[in-house]
Amino acid sequence: MNLTTPPPVEPLDPDYATDVQHDLVRRVRKKRRVPAWTPVLAAACGIAVIVAGGVFISRSNNEPSPAGRPTIVQVPAGTSPTQSLDLGPASGNEASVAAVACLAKEAAAAKPNQYPGGSLDPATIQLKSARWIKALGLPGRERQLVQSFMTANYVWFLCVDGKAEPYQGVGDGATDDVVGSWSWSNVGSPSVLRATFAFRSLAIVTRVELRIRGTEGASPWSVVSVADRGGYVTAVLPDAQARHGSAKVDIRGLDKTGKVLFEKTVG
Questions:
Q1: Residue 123 is assigned to a structural domain of this protein
Q2: What is the pLDDT of residues 192-244, one digit of tens each?
Q3: pTM
Q4: Helix (H) or strand (E) holding 28
Q5: Whole domain around residue 230: which residue ranges?
């Protein structure tokens, strides 16, 4: 057997390569503990993905037991109104400045050998998408910049307002069309409960929606279009309707026909 000469490689169909790529991405995310960067690399795929860790929310010890917690309202998905957060594309200059800032922050926080060599070099940035969305629940803010870009070694970043966002934690199954990381917090005065979801999806998913259900009501579905197979969506609910944190967050991904491909409830 000749071990010095590699066997011939037959080119793969692009659609098959895409399916292999995303299957590998989903399998990587099934692990709870992953390194800060995970190469999902093959001749057919040619891409590596940053998995910066999921956001998991835990309740404090002084909160009531499950039996004593308020009941969350049950609102059929189809009865909640929708509101689009999309405000249109950002300019090339806006995207470039934010991408450099995002990468600089990531470089300052990175541990030794956390990324492949050269991956944090701003000269290697390749902008993929950049768009504005409505800034829900952020006092004094009207919009947020959501963007994606790739650097050396095919490392992919999702950034919001110049800060890298993790997108691992929800949707760990190998068949999920959307994977992402969610969080919530109380903001503003009067206080509102604000939920966020940063995500990565398959190409078939064209929009992602999020809503909050509390004890006294539910928010509309916040809707964002998917760009470069990723994005960021937020929703808010008056704190009085959530009894200071008693709420559930519904997430779903849809295709261009409106068919629901992915749905998950967290909280």
A1: yes
A2: 899 999 999 999 999 999 999 998 889 999 999 999 999 999 999 988 776 65
A3: 0.74
A4: helix 14-29
A5: 14-266
